[in-house]
C-alpha cells in the first residue's frame, strides 16, 4: 500500500484560508484520523487528497507519485489516483442492486464481465454482504448501505482509503459496531487509511495516529494516548473530555528519564505531575487533571504513588466521565456516569462512581499520574 505526503498544503477561498500551510505524512498501512470541530479544514484536506479540491499551495504525493503541485500547476484528477472513498451520505445508487453498485467502479474501467463477478464477490464477502447481492439498494438498512459503500471503495483494490465521517448518520449502537468493523477490515487489508471525524471517541478508538486540527492548522499529531495524556497546549487538552485546568506553583522539580516530575501546590490541593521541560521552584504553572486522575481523601491526606493504579486498556473514551469540581475543590457534583473498563486507579468505573456521591465537605487531593500534563 502507498503512503501519503502533504507538504505545505494550503486551500484558500477568496480571503479565507480553509487549510493553512499543512504538512503531514501518512505511512503505508497506517490509520490516521483528522479530528477537529466544524470548519477546521479536515474535510477540505481529505478532498484535496482525493482530488475533489485543488490545493492552492504546496504539494501532495501518493506513494512515489506527485498527484498535485500548486507551484508547478500540476494536478492528477481523482479517477487516476487509485483512491477509494466512502462519503458521509454513502452515495449509493438507488436504481441499482447491491451487486451493480459495487461493480460500478469496475464497469467504468471496462473490466471483463468474468473479472467483475469475481472481484465483486470478494468485496461483498469482505463486508459480509454476499447474500444481499441482488437486493435493491433502497431496501437496505443504514448499516448495510454503509457496508456496500465500503465494498465499492475497495473493489478495484485502491492504494489509499478515504473516509469522510462515515458513521455520522448511524445510531449510537451501530456506530460502535461499524467502527469496530472498519478497524478490523483496515488491519486485515493493511490499507493506508485517512479518516475524518469530529467525534473524539471514534478518533481515539480507531486510529493509529490522531491529527487534531483547528483553523486550518495542525495543533498536534500523535498516537491517541499521547494526545490524551500529553497534549501540547490548552486547545488540544480542552478538546478531549472535560479536563480541570488548575493554577499552581512548583514546589520541586526532579528529572525523570526524558521528562521532569514536578511537585506542585494549588489552592487547597497538592500533587505530582509530569512536564516536558524543567520548571524552576516557585514558578506559576497550569496543571491539567482528568477526572480519572483524582482520588477522594481526608484533608491533608497524602497518597503514595504505589496506591495509584494504571489504566488497563488501550482506548480511552474521554467524553464518558464528566465530573465538575467546585473552585476550592472541597465538593464534587456528579454530572455524568463513567463507563467502560477501569479508571486510572485500577478500579472499575462503577465503584468509582459510588465514591463520588455525597462527598460534601471532603477535600480532593489530586495526584496526577501519567495522564496529567503541565502547561
Describe the structure.
This protein is an alpha+beta fold and 375 residues long. It folds into 2 domains: 4-234, P-loop containing nucleotide triphosphate hydrolases (Rossmann fold), CATH 3.40.50; 235-374, no CATH class. It is 24% helix and 30% strand. It is built from 9 helices and 20 strands. It has a 6-stranded mixed β-sheet, sandwiched between helices. A 5-stranded antiparallel β-sheet has the order 2-1-4-5-6, covered by helices on one side. It is elongated. The chain starts with a strand and ends with a strand. 38% of the residues are buried.
Q: What is the domain tally?
A: 2
Helix and strand composition category: alpha+beta
β-strand number: 20
Which CATH first-tier class of the largest domain would you pick? Alpha Beta
Continuous helix count:
9
- Major beta sheet, specifics? 6 strands, mixed
Amino acid at each position: 500500500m502507498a503512503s501519503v505526503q502533504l507538504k505545505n498544503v494550503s486551500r484558500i477561498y477568496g480571503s479565507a484560508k480553509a487549510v493553512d500551510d499543512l504538512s503531514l505524512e501518512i505511512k503505508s498501512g497506517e490509520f490516521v484520523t483528522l479530528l477537529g470541530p466544524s470548519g477546521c479544514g479536515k474535510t477540505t484536506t481529505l478532498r484535496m487528497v482525493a482530488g475533489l479540491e485543488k490545493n492552492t499551495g504546496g504539494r501532495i504525493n501518493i506513494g512515489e507519485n506527485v498527484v498535485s503541485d500548486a507551484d508547478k500547476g500540476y494536478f492528477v484528477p481523482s479517477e487516476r489516483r487509485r483512491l477509494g472513498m466512502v462519503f458521509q451520505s454513502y452515495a449509493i445508487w438507488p436504481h441499482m442492486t447491491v451487486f451493480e453498485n459495487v461493480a460500478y467502479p469496475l464497469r467504468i474501467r471496462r473490466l471483463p464481465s468474468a473479472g467483475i463477478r469475481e472481484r465483486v464477490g470478494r468485496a461483498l464477502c469482505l463486508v459480509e454482504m454476499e447474500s444481499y447481492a441482488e437486493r435493491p439498494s433502497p431496501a437496505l438498512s443504514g448499516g448495510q448501505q454503509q457496508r456496500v459503500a465500503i465494498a465499492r471503495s475497495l473493489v478495484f483494490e485502491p492504494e489509499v482509503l478515504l473516509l469522510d465521517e462515515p458513521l455520522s448518520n448511524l445510531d449510537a449502537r451501530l456506530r460502535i459496531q461499524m467502527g469496530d468493523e472498519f478497524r478490523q477490515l483496515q488491519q486485515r487489508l493493511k490499507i493506508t487509511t485517512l479518516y475524518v471525524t469530529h467525534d473524539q471517541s471514534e478518533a481515539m478508538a480507531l486510529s493509529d495516529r490522531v491529527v487534531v486540527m483547528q483553523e486550518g492548522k495542525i495543533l498536534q499529531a500523535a498516537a491517541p494516548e499521547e494526545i490524551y495524556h500529553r497534549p501540547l497546549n490548552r486547545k488540544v487538552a480542552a478538546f478531549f473530555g472535560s479536563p480541570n485546568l488548575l493554577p499552581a506553583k512548583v514546589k520541586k522539580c526532579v528529572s525523570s528519564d526524558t521528562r521532569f516530575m514536578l511537585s506542585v501546590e494549588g489552592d487547597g490541593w497538592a500533587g505530582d505531575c509530569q512536564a516536558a521541560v524543567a520548571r524552576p521552584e516557585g514558578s506559576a504553572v497550569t496543571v491539567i487533571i482528568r477526572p480519572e486522575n483524582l482520588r477522594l481523601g481526608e484533608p491533608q491526606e497524602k497518597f503514595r504513588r504505589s496506591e495509584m493504579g494504571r489504566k488497563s486498556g488501550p482506548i480511552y473514551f474521554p467524553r464518558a466521565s464528566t465530573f465538575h469540581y467546585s473552585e476550592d475543590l472541597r465538593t464534587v457534583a456528579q454530572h455524568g456516569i463513567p463507563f467502560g473498563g477501569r479508571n486510572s486507579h485500577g478500579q472499575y468505573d462503577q465503584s468509582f462512581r459510588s465514591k463520588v456521591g455525597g462527598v460534601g465537605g471532603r477535600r480532593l487531593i489530586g495526584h496526577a499520574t501519567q495522564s496529567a500534563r503541565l502547561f
